[in-house]
Amino acid sequence: MTRPRRLLLVLSNLGTGGAEWQVRHLARGLAQQGDDVTVVALGRVLPPVEALTSAGVRILELGAFGPRARLLALPQLTRLARRADVVHCTSWDATLYGRLAALLARRPVVVSDHATDRRIHVSRQGAPRGRWVSAHHRLLGPLTATTVVCARSQEQLLAAEGVPRDRLVHIPNGIPLDEVRGAAGRGPSRAELGIPDQALVVVHVAHFRTEKNQEQTLETVAALRNALGDVRAVFVGTGPREDELRTRAQAMGADWAVFLGRRGNAPGVMALADLLVLPSRADTMPMTILEALALGVPVVAYDVGDVGTVLAATGGGVCVPHMDDAAFTAACGRVLADDRLRHELSDLGRRGAAGYDADTMVRRYADVFASALPGRPAPMSRLRVAQVGPDLHGRGGMPAVMQGLFSSPLAERHQLDFIATYGTATYGDADPWRRAATFAGGLARLVGWSLRRGRRLVHIHTATRGSWYRKSVCVLAARATGRPVILHVHAGPGDIAAFCERIGPLRRRLFAWAFRAADRVVSVSSAGALEIERGLGVHGIVVVPNAAPPRPAAAAPRPATASAPGRDAVEVLYLGGFANPAKGGHVLVEALPELLAAAPRVSVTMAGLGPAPELRDTGGRVRWLGWLERDAAGAALADADIVVLPSISEGLPVVLLEALSQGKAVVATRAGGIPEVISDGVDGVLVDPADPVALAQALARLAGDAALRTRLGAAAAARADRLGHEEVYQRLDDLYRELAPAPPAVSAGVR
What we know:
The protein is of the alpha/beta class.
């Protein structure tokens, strides 16, 4: 009879920091799924522990403080390791002593590393220890079964320290969303903290250590009070630099700074905030950001570790260049001064946080532990995934996204099969009977494919309008065969809202029935997910943005003054065409007279689907190219200095991601998923939709400022790296693994 897997989780202290909370969530989740879990703290155990013990987790406190005491405790730790099947270690000294114990006990060991910058890696007492961390990784990394990183940014560092790349696994941090939101309702009131209701509250939750940079929050709030009036800074946490920061606040006369010390319910304090800040000098994937997003608290942070990746994926905050104090203060001021922006960030963050739930993290760790076991189960048999959507050679964004799937890491991990349900290569001009025949043939192939044996999953891609009708039938047909289904909505929020309003209540109920029949509904933006919830009443939508293509080798952001040889112009490129009014081409045409008058060096190239626009009095400075095939569009993009997207409604446009990956300066609208990717003034310029005056002014300003174009282009390329294929496709792979039926049972396991 198979017994539960025995896991020993070792850490320095079971405290209340971010890494410690990850261990708490992990231990409880593993115990709830049937594992026998013991948590060992080398030093002390701090409350709360009830959630762990009630789940059946055993907690041991060795009371060993300092290197000598922990070395003396090594025999006891080794005995505990011998009783386990796998040893897991978190925090640097736990990874040292825990790995030694596992090696002595001849047990496989898994390590979680949460540090990034060794130069400022210090103990809780402030003593430098980065070189010791590096040294023991070099010695013990090759002897470790798996090293887990919570941030992609750690992989290069650990590989340089001798950890084999094939033993590095990325598992993002996760939080129990419902618990975090429940805890927020049990926090203090503003009155209890002496904060007026009308004050703007900025919260910083972190240990008082060098890398957390609380002094920047003090300086920022002091500056904002001059512009915005009553702004309060609330600090949660303790640590070696707490007294220093309190003294500094006193010297500044900062009676507006509130120091709360250690709080067992940090989300309860965050819930009072108008803004959460994290100006960290170094970080990986801080829990506080995930908690703030889950609570709908906007975030402003430095671009460090995977912070930018999280904020880009969720759209719940603003990320500024690392250690750019002026940009940080400006971003905080912009968010605090704009109620509408705060509400938008709040809604996006609350929905985007669903991608970072603790259950997903626990499942991925469980897979790592299973792979570390001697005589481990054979790898999962290859999953077959039907990609159902329009002709891959068709025009538009959705075929481009689907083409990306077939050249992505997903195509290496799984067998992807394509089934077309819409066959025209030029949307809108095909014979309707031919379209119907294409759909009928695609539906028949889908049913036949689903009825075959083996591990199979159906991934259906849809826009709106007629696509919803066709793909709803596909969802119901695939579910009738018993196959798991993902319905992936690529439409913008404006299109979704307009379509739901137009179809009436009966068809909305029918579409809601079909959407709920899918095992998961995916949206490319949090704004799109919100409109699906509003229009159809369907909840639990997963947000997975489109992936930015890999940066071309020659696409390093060029100096903005380097236009094509022989021309002096600043080239503005628009690729949205005029077939779909939602692309905003008509707004750009309205903006042209003011733009051309204000920026004499500008030339504009327009391309895309649809009829040629009516252009008058442009002096030959505007040209229309019509539809461009992929190579020609790529060449036009390479020649552009500025890429403009004047969209009225969008999902997450592929051309935006291509422009970012090539390091182009971008002017776009606050439509759909665009604000979830671009932060105004940081890695692009945003204007309101349908505002030709603002659009012309933004383009003219960029055309006249070469240094600004260069800065935005460099930041755009960095943002594209965080939305790369590996990040986005890993999230889809997680969904596939979650929904895929279990492979045939194999022998060998824990007995």
